[in-house]
Design goal:
The protein is an alpha/beta fold and 459 residues long. Helices cover 33% and strands 20% of the residues. It contains 14 helices and 21 strands. Inosinic acid binds at residues 11-12, 37-39, 124-127, 129, 131-132, 231-232, 236, 245, 247-248, 283-284.
């Protein structure tokens, strides 16, 4: 049996927590896209773990798989595994041989390109982890795959082809002297070959390399439960998001098939659970029609649309929700829930149900708004337009809900759905109605136990 977890918004919807809540019956947790740009915090037996690459289930003794659709920075991978081992855990993580490797030059190039774009205010606000440049090389058929690290001759051939191109890019296009860079070794074939051959040996010795599709199919055939854990979210999907303010992979459910080697039929035979935060946040640039505000100077994309006049409310929600980037520490821009965005997400991934997180964060407000539809050029739109320029011109048509009080959320979680304040239930039921899918769970606090679970997709 499989269950796929998909971020319905702009990332940071609390996917790691959901993997956790539904994770008891899970044997294998597989990531299908992205790399160490993701950030999740897992609380296990009172200890907090911050991970960016290792699938969150690995903290709880599940087998973690980084699928072929991922881009893997082996330095991050080993740092995270070593840190978990130092804390007494014994994580079991497998890496697809078909996954692409983030090499040190990818990170440098990510920074250089963002810097160049920022001269014309065109930066994406990437996490700087080299994600885009690695996927570019994958599509350009000049990437290095994890499996290549096992064969020093193949690795040398790949590096000897690609590194001179990267050097020329830095020196001739961006006019930067490689020797002036902080880490010129990132562009040195021999240094890269030494380091990454040793990484290949370590991956091999630790028996970490798999053919992901085969490995996951065998697990399913053996009756194991597989959870596919999407990173990032629908609106930063390279195809279905607000291009170019996107990441370079497919967080939507289709990515779960191409990024693991399981068929769309296998993915579609299980639940696809959309993870929705009760409001909206964004860490990078790009429009956000229901925006309340960002932090001037600190939030890339701040005031992108001349919005941001509701700073006080944005600050309140940011502080209550702890809305600061896990990977970067950047304060997040904050907005009201955007229903056209969610309808688009539900259609793209085919949500069979959803989890509504952080409902407690909005408690205590007099009223809570939702962008129910958009108005664009005199027309009312129920879903997002396909171009980012049009999206930026959309005016939200708000629906206003009466607020709900702060209550003892742990007790509510114990007592179940009917214990939620009536106005909070009205909010949940509105989202259910609009998405045509049931709320499987409602997050009412950061802890695992602070969740109202109505349906476990593995049962
Ligand atoms: P990249 O994935 O580092 O290339 O960044 C591309 C865009 O995706 C930027 O706007 C990032 O802020 C955003 N992004 C990447 N990873 C995450 C995430 O885990 N949560 C939220 N936004 C993300």
């Amino acid at each position: 049996m499989t269950v796929t977890i998909v971020g319905a918004q702009l990332g940071d919807e609390g996917k790691g927590g959901v993997v956790d809540i539904f994770g008891d019956a899970v044997d294998v947790v597989a990531r299908y896209q992205g790399g160490d740009n993701a950030g999740h915090t897992v609380v296990h037996e009172g200890d907090e773990y911050k991970l960016s690459l290792v699938p969150s289930g690995a903290v709880r003794g599940k087998t973690g798989v980084l699928g072929n659709g991922c881009v893997v920075n082996p330095r991050t991978l080993f740092d995270e595994l070593d840190a978990l081992r130092e804390r007494g855990l014994d994580p079991d993580v497998r890496v697809a041989k078909r996954a692409h490797v983030i090499l040190p030059y990818h990170r440098v190039l990510d920074g250089i390109e963002e810097e160049a774009k920022s001269e014309d205010d065109q930066e994406v606000g990437t996490t700087g982890r080299g994600i885009g440049p690695t996927y570019e090389d994958k599509a350009g058929r000049r990437g290095v795959r994890v499996g290549d690290l096992l064969n020093p001759d193949v690795l040398r051939d790949r590096l000897e082809y690609v590194v001179p191109q990267k050097r020329a890019l830095v020196e001739n296009v961006y006019d930067i002297d490689i020797d002036d860079l902080e880490n010129p070794d990132a562009f040195d074939v021999d240094a890269l070959h030494d380091e990454f051959t040793a990484i290949g040996e370590r991956l091999d010795e630790n028996d970490m390399l798999v053919n992901a599709g085969e490995f996951l199919s065998a697990a399913i055939d053996d009756g194991e439960n597989v959870m596919m854990e999407g990173a990032q979210g629908t609106i930063i999907d390279i195809d279905h998001g607000n291009y170019p303010y996107v990441t370079s992979s497919n967080p939507t459910a289709g990515g779960a098939a191409t990024g693991t080697g399981l068929s769309p039929g296998v993915v579609g035979s299980g639940d696809v659970v959309g993870i929705v935060k009760s409001y909206l946040t964004r860490v990078g640039s790009g429009p956000m029609p229901t925006e309340l505000g960002g932090v001037e100077g600190d939030t890339p994309g701040y005031d992108e649309q001349g919005e941001g006049e509701n700073e006080e409310l944005a600050t309140y929600i940011r502080e209550e929700g702890g809305e600061y980037g896990t990977v970067t520490g950047r304060p997040r821009r904050v907005a009201w829930l955007d229903m056209p965005m969610l309808r688009h997400a539900a259609r793209t991934s085919g949500f069979t149900g959803f989890v509504l997180n952080h409902l407690d964060v909005l408690a205590g407000l007099d009223e809570v708004k939702v962008g129910h539809a958009y108005e664009l050029d005199g027309e009312v739109l129920e879903t997002m337009p396909a171009t980012t320029e049009e999206w930026a011109r959309c005016d939200p048509v708000y629906e206003t809900f009466d607020g709900w009080p702060e209550v003892d959320w742990a007790t509510v979680a114990d007592d179940g759905y009917d214990a939620l304040p009536a106005n909070a239930r009205a909010y949940v039921e509105y989202v259910e109605e609009e998405l045509g899918a049931p709320a499987y769970a409602i997050g009412v606090g950061p802890g695992r136990e602070e969740t109202v679970v109505r349906h476990d997709p593995f049962e």
